[in-house]
């Protein structure tokens, strides 16, 4: 069993050796040697080899004749092949000889084709490179010409289109490396140009603003001229005037219609003509292309805000001259004209919100600066010029779309300051007029002079018109001068209200309120100053009363004058009325009071000359010298009052009323002063002789009152001023104490006006005089027997008077 398996295994190995490549029989042979029967295998292998050798021998024997025949044929072929070789060699030689020229031509053709291919390749490469070089050359030219925005566009095209198509050449690499540097250079140069532009417009803002304001002024003038022409030409009066004169009443300047040539000749350049805006446009485009537009916008706005703050900072001495304000406004207008131009010529560099924000800032700072600096101004002409300049400033900016209502509101605030400055100026004018006036009626020598004065002051007096020349007007020079100044003040107020976009009613109300302030405050104070100042005589005061009366009568003419210039009827509802009537009435009252005070002061001066001998034994038969002089003065003074107007409006200017009041006041003051003189504490003793002299003087005063120095008193009304003195003197001269003491307190008492205190004081002075025995000329000296009785009587009366006083006080 084992031998059969071994034989089968050996058979398998042999088949494997026969069928397998000799390189792979190693494992097979190892399996033979690994076993115990390799000798048997070797025998079997030898047997197999012998079998194969016999098969090979059989095969060779079978094919030997064919092999011999093949060798024989091969030998024959060799000869033929040799011949063929010779022929081929000859043919080859001939062919080589004949092909040398062809090879030469082929080499030449190959070189030519190679050159053509190289040329085509070169042309193709140059086709891609030449645009790069041309573009780069164009870039260099643009850089040299400082055309940076086109250069940046060229650079972008070079980078995005040309260089990728050109290939990887060294010059392309160099160009690619230079592109960022060129961009940076363009950005820096454009930024430098922008900085120069910003500096330029900062310096030229004044000129730009001046030009813009001139344009606005010319346009406003033309509009006003055209409006005026249309309004005037629509009237029949103008048409008649044209037909009569055969010419246009409007000059070319006023008509506002200019020839095209003149318009072009007088054309005022705009902001774009004065400033080259190309740097800001160029820089904007460049930064947009570079993708840094936001950076540029932020930088531009930041710088302009800084410039705005500088522009809005006024000079410290701006308020001194109009040119200071003009430069300030020109700079602001120039700034916003530039911003408005930038707003409308660029897309998004500045927007409306940004410009409005700047304008709000500018408006607040400008108004604050104007309020501060205008408050220092004391010249009304400068304030008026400033107002006109502010109006032009507002109209100019309003033409560019900026809201300016706050400026006009501020002008209305400035109107109050303007009014105060006007009042101060007119205060000086009024004082100067009052100081220079001679307070005497105006002499008129000719009709021309009369018409000149009538043109200054609305005066009408038919009786005076009938009088021949020369003649005198009742008022002095200050009446027409004051009236003219009132009209000038109204004109000054009207000038300020122009162009403020106010209605006629508002203008009328403003003028009337300002005029009322002038009348009630300024003119009233000046009149009071003229009345109250020192060394004003009674004649001057009388003339002031006459003057204020005529000025009072002219107030309705002022009302009409204001209505005419404002086109507002005087009977309009809620229209402010002028307070001129009350102003002049108050001044007249003050003058009347001053007359009374002056008269009293004159009386006091005369009384200071009184030199009574209070211990005289006997009185004189004549009035004292000082009193005679005083009566003469009063008589001459009251004749002056006959010059007062007899047709005045009411109150104290009625005929004789001032004179009557003055006369009554003077008599009362004289009576009171004489009584005080009699009761002075310094006068310790009063003799009956002195009392008699005093009684003579009082009788002289009564004669003056009874004579009627001023007409118009009814009966003995003027004598009532001396009734207190008369009853007191009668009581002492008649020594009627029983009647006085018995009837005291009754309405029918004879001595009703005698005060017990006064009687007691005077009686004590007489008692002291009687007790002075050193006086030899005492009126009671001849009655020495009765002296004690008299003294007892006096003491009894004194005691009764004291009891009476004590009873009344209880």
UniProtKB/TrEMBL annotation:
It holds the Pfam family EXOC6_Sec15_N. One of its GO terms (biological process) is Golgi to plasma membrane transport. It comes from the Eukaryota. Keywords: Exocytosis, Transport. Residues 44-213 form the Exocyst complex component EXOC6/Sec15 N-terminal domain. The keyword ATP-binding does not apply. InterPro entries: EXOC6/Sec15 (IPR007225), EXOC6/Sec15_C (IPR046361), EXOC6/Sec15_C_dom1 (IPR042045), EXOC6_Sec15_N (IPR048359), EXOC6PINT-1/Sec15/Tip20_C_dom2 (IPR042044). GO terms for cellular component: exocyst; plasma membrane. Residues 224-255 are annotated as: Disordered. Residues 406-765 form the Exocyst complex subunit EXOC6/Sec15 C-terminal domain. Component of the exocyst complex involved in the docking of exocytic vesicles with fusion sites on the plasma membrane. Belongs to the SEC15 family. This is Exocyst complex component. The lineage of its organism: Eukaryota, Metazoa, Chordata, Craniata, Vertebrata.
